[in-house]
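Handover notes (outgoing to incoming on-call)

Open items:
1. Ferritin-like domain-containing protein: sequence verified, structure written out, both below. Nothing else pending on this one.
2. Nothing else urgent.
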Amino acid sequence: MADFLMDIETIRARARQEIEKGPVTDAYGADLERVLQVLNEALATEIVCTLRYKRHYYTASGIYSEPVAAEFLEHATQEQEHADKIARRIVQLGGKPDFHPDTLTQRAHASYDASADLVEMIKEDLVAERVAIAAYTEIAQWLGDGDPTTRRVFEDLLAQEEEHADDLRGLLERIPQHGRA
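Ferritin-like domain-containing protein structure tokens:
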């Protein structure tokens, strides 16, 4: 392992260069344009997930719907928080968060769902969570040490998406097949 040598004068001089880049310095090791594209795809994913959970919350019906709808609302709130976190990171990196509604579903990893059946709603939400888990795992691995801050954002999202998937699996296990509403 090489010795850590820090030339503070060189670091200070570099910090003054390209000051308009904010936190993106010469030490940034990722492809910034691609990172911003990936972040905007994740932003679209989180917005679509928020909308899907909101729809499921408002349209859930049947004997088992009350606790399931409450879970949908909690997940919708958390997905919106994810979108906000991603949008903040995009801006921090000097990009522009893309909230354009015409292209949201094309850019999103997960799909929107308009199921009317409670069990189908849960299953579609679980599929979407599994898609996000797979995508965010791959993104975190791809980022590696090139952008550790963005990698940690995705690792944090990943942990919550795994929790959502576990919650949904638990809901499916508690609803008897004849209890479909």
